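Blackboard transcription, Thursday session:
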Amino acid sequence: MGKKVLITDDTAFMRMTLRNVLEKNGYEVVAEAEDGFQAVEKYQELKPDLVTMDITMPNMDGITAIKKIMAEDPQAKIVVVSAMGQKALVIEALNSGAKDFIVKPFQPDRIVEALQKVGG
Amino acid sequence: MKQDQEAAAEVQLVTFRLEQEEFALDINQVREVLRMAPVTLLPQSAHFIEGVINLRGEIIPVIDLRKRFELPPKERDEQTRIIIVEIEEQKVGLIVDLVTEVLRLPSEAIKPPPERVVNVQNDLIRGIGKIEKRLLIILNLTKILDAEEKIALREVIPGVE
Amino acid sequence: MEEYEDLFLAETQEYLQNITQCLLALEKDLDDEHLEAMFRAAHSLKGMAGTMGYELITDLTHEMETLLDKLRRGEIALETECVNLFLEAVDLIQLLVDNLHRQDDFRPQVSALSKKLLAWQRVAGGEKTPGTFSPQQEMEGAEKEPNGRERDIAWQKMLSAFEKETLKEALLKGEETYQVYIRLRQGSLLKSVRAYMVLKALEKEGEIVKAWPSLQALEEESFDREFFLLLVGMPRVGALKETLEGIVEIEKVEISPVKLDEDSPASVESVDGAGLEKESPGTLPGKGLSPPGHVVEKTVRVETAKLDSLVNLVGELVINRTRVLELGKMARDTALENALEQMEMITTELQNAVMTLRMVPVRQVFDRFPRMVRDLSLEKNKKVELIISGKETELDRTIVNQMGDPLVHLLRNAIDHGLEEEEERIKKGKEPLNTIYLRAQHEGSHVVITVEDDGRGIDPEAIKQKALVKKMISVREAEEMGPAEVLQLIFQSGLSTSREVTDISGRGVGMSVVKTEIEALNGTVEVESRPGWGSRFILRFPLTLAIIRTLMVQCGQEVYAIPVEAIQENLFVEPKEIRTIRQERVISLREEVLPFYFLQELFGSGSSPVQEYYPVVVVRAGNKKAGLAVDALLGQQEVVIKSLSRFVNELRGIAGATVLGDGRVTLILDIAGLLEDRRLNLGKKSVDH
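(Written on the board underneath:)
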């Protein structure tokens, strides 16, 4: 059984791309969240092994969501998926508890490698 | 150790004269004795500071002990000397009328200063040394430089009227 | 070839200094003249290095030259990033030159830098992406796996005195030093954040003393994909390696212990302060400064030990002279006495001359600050102008050599915490540009060095609160302390006023270290501040061995020396030109009315004889001026300042004394003290006499 992943991104296209790549590589995508609120909710409900987190999203941004999830579960493994040029935000996300980050647009093998490293 | 015992047994002193009195300093505090040298005046310094001299490139303040003890001034002559002493790692020169000798004195020959003197002038006098009929006033150097302290010699010398 | 080495070294220094100056000028204003001069310097450097067979320097200068040529032809614009690159190259060449016999140690740095220079040249060829090198571009061609030897950085050559000190302390605590090598995957994005993650992981295990490329470069992503860090501490190496390898996109991690050579006791210092560590490989906790880009004097280098022994020997000679003179007098031989007198004068001058050997201008330290301030202000994105004055002020070599670190710290502090962003300044109605003043000047018996900024200042209330929280002062003490007193608390250990951790300031070496270092040189430091308007640090160093130029004046029986720097001009004044206003004498000098004194009266040694003309020295200190009448002007002379004994050093108006050629002692006036004093009181005192 592959690791359970929660995908968080506000664009449907990015969620789909991520799902395809992950499923092809043996991960089980248990849910998709469109914003920070949903991510926090789904995390509590499903307790996935890994979370991918976009930073800029409506309603609740990724950093707030990371903080909330980490407060709930300090063991949570969250990987930030950021756009280019978000250096300060990425650093803030890392300081908030995200384990690592990857930069969009990514190559499929990169995201897999990243999740492997973080997921152990 | 050996030195300590010796020190306990006897004291080596440099003796000098001011007016009619004979004074003494512990030889350990004396660096050298010079003839009178040209002194550069120091404006606005304490009245008893004569000025500064050049001792092999080192600049050393010089005190006129007569002025310090409020004795009348005396013409400098062939016998006038500057005794270079070291106080708290600083060299200072003392102008005296005449340096008499270097002598050893058994410790028991040194008596503490009389009570009334101690009261008047705290630590200025370390003790009174007696050799036969001579009376040596052994000075404590640290107080000499303290400008706050007024020292009138007639008040401190026993037997001087 | 060896015999040409010295010449090569000296000339290289000049060229490097030249290039740096040109760069800084070009950055402000791109003009052909400086571009041309810089091109020539790089070209000459290349030629020399080629002749000497220094392949790495040749490579680097070649790339510089090519890039400069394109700049010259206007194919590319000179951007800050490009200036940085050139400066980096200058630094690297300096390192190579400092380590002529171990140049190979720097091979990885040279190849990385050459690549960057090459990338800029391509920009000219129409390719975009200037500073942030696209990965494909940097790493094209076969991937070269450098061997271990090539990967070792010659850290000890790159460490500043401060960093060496940090290391030394750590080593004393039994900590160890490691080199951490990191290589990112090809094509990594947001590399600076990767570097950040590495730094964060390392900081949990120890202290990062140094990075190559610099931390600044890492932050700005001006590196390709490799970097090296020097870590000190007691890291769990295995766990650390695992953590680092666990970071996404990190391809290679190597952690290896580094042996930094111990300081060799007989460290060699040169008269001009230039670092030379050719003979003794590595000086870890060295005292000397060897900043890159220092000025090279046309001087002979002498070992400090030789100089000190010379000073001692002359001292002995002078002592012996006195004895010989005594003997001469006893012989009652006029010819002998004359000869001895001559000898006495010569030995005195010899003594003075030897003393001056120990004196060096503060320029040696000050000259490296424009570059440092420039780099830092870019890093912090705060615009600043550094205004330096008094570079030629001379101080004892020991003091000059050792005051660099505290000054670096104060300047960094000013930039980190003092300076403001442009917006903030405009809002406050200040000039948009921050200004830092660095001044050196003689003041009385001291050399005073001030580091002043016009930034946000220090808030005494914040310091007080902090000191209270840290229990450094009691509530009662806090109530009783005035703001000026509170400010001095910043020099106590344990009180750091900023939370920000930067490259140096904030890394455990706070203001208390600055104070300790200054006090070790018999100096003092004070701070003044106007919250919102800036701070000023005032460093005072003793002048025990300092030499100043003075004007000798006759005054009654005495001769006094007036420091030339306190003199505005000399004039002659007729008695009728002296007027009395409110019981004070004044003279008119052009538009000004100046207080007028007879020096002799100020010093209470009687009044001057009435003369047809009085020679008057117009002196000034700060904004105060006065005319001092003397009996005669005797001419200028350089004198060695000696301090008066502490039993008499409370004298107002006297800076110290000096011994003239004839053995006489002459007092040196402290004009600032004299003018600051209650002058009327002085005058009255003389009346009382």
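Lecturer's comment: Chain C touches chain B at residues 315, 318-319, 322, 348, 351, 557-558, 602-605, 642-648, 651-654, 657, 659, 663-667, 682, 685 (CB under 8 Å).
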